Amino acid sequence: MWIWVLFIALIVVFLALDLGVFHKNDHVIKSKEAGIWTVIWVTVAMSFSGVIYWLFSEGLVDNPTGLTPNNAVLKYITGYLIELSLSIDNVFVIAVIFSAFKIPALYQHRVLFWGILGAIIFRGLMIVFGVALINKFEWIIYVFGVFLLYTAFKMLKGDEHEFNPKTSFVFRQLKKVYPITHSLHGHDFFVKRMGLNAATPLFVALIVIELTDVLFALDSIPAILAITADPFIVFSSNILAILGLRSMYFLISRMLQKFRYINYSLVVILAFVGLKMLFSHQIELPEWVSLTVISVALLSGILASLLIKEKETPTEG
């Protein structure tokens, strides 16, 4: 239990340093700064694989699935890459939300900080219940597998309707229960208006981001559970990937058009882990196979997006 306490304390320290020291003053996050922070978070996450090896080799963490230290490291890295790759899709939605509510780049980091904090809490709960379900009801793994295949099929067909935050159910319900201002008031989430508290567009964007992250977690949590049901590996890989999501957003949100083939990578990843779940009792793949498939799918999507030139639409003369 103390390992969990120490890990959560470490995350709290990271978050406190982030908002209280490195981003104490609101400023626009440039691509160079975002790139540096992305490298830092990825380095921290990959370095944590050494901690995973140490914990499992010394028996300092519960090991309900009987993993060897080497296997634990491979499963941690695979889970981290799955969450990181699926987070790319999340970046697209966050960009739409910020655009819809006209959130200036100056305040976007603040919104994402509190959004990440909420995501950590919600995902922690989902992981606990997901692991408990798999351990108690083995057949639930087939439900997760079918769900991931269905999600991959929908993504491949492009059936997802264009998301408009201002017409979403969440926004409409929020307007009914709490006053909302139409203008920003600095970086404040709430203001006094005619003696009443009212939410600013900053707070509305935060709530919509929180709830859309919960929807994304419905894909990513089962995907990681396809790799391992070890609760500490699932939680640590997921949370460390989420921590890097903010810097990743500022790094790639300005290049969204370039990553036009990344959805196909996500389709392959979701389909692979879905099939892995469905055949988990018949076929046991070595962990390096999962890691290779996920890495190759992600790199292929990125390289295809960068190397294949977009067809120019003919202009009317």
Written description of the protein model:
- The protein has a two-stranded antiparallel sheet.
- The protein has 11 helices and 2 strands.
- It is mainly α and 317 residues long.
- The chain has a domain at 27-158 and 220-305.
- It has helices at residues 2-22, 31-57, 69-100, 105-136, 140-157, 169-177, 201-225, 231-243, 245-252, 262-278, 287-307; strands at 190-193, 196-199.
- The protein starts with a helix and ends in a 10-residue tail after the last helix.
- The longest helix has 32 residues, at 69-100.
Tell me the layout of helices and strands.
Blueprint: H1 2-22, H2 31-57, H3 69-100, H4 105-136, H5 140-157, H6 169-177, E1 190-193, E2 196-199, H7 201-225, H8 231-243, H9 245-252, H10 262-278, H11 287-307
Antiparallel strand pairs: 1-2
GO cellular component, one term: membrane
Subcellular location: Membrane
Protein name: Tellurite resistance protein TerC
Shape: globular
Structural class of the secondary structure composition? Answer: mainly alpha
The number of strands is 2
User: Regions with pLDDT < 50 over 5+ consecutive residues?
Assistant: none
Radius of gyration: 20 Å
The percent range for helix content is over 70%
Mean pLDDT: 80
**Approximate strand percentage:** under 5%
* Separate helix tally: 11
Q: Order of SSEs, N→C?
A: HHHHHHEEHHHHH
Largest sheet: 2 strands, antiparallel
Largest sheet strand order: 1-2
CA distance, first residue to last residue: 70 Å
Protein name: Tellurite resistance protein TerC
Pfam families: TerC (PF03741)
Subcellular location: Membrane
InterPro entries: Integral_membrane_TerC, Integral_membrane_TerC_rswitch
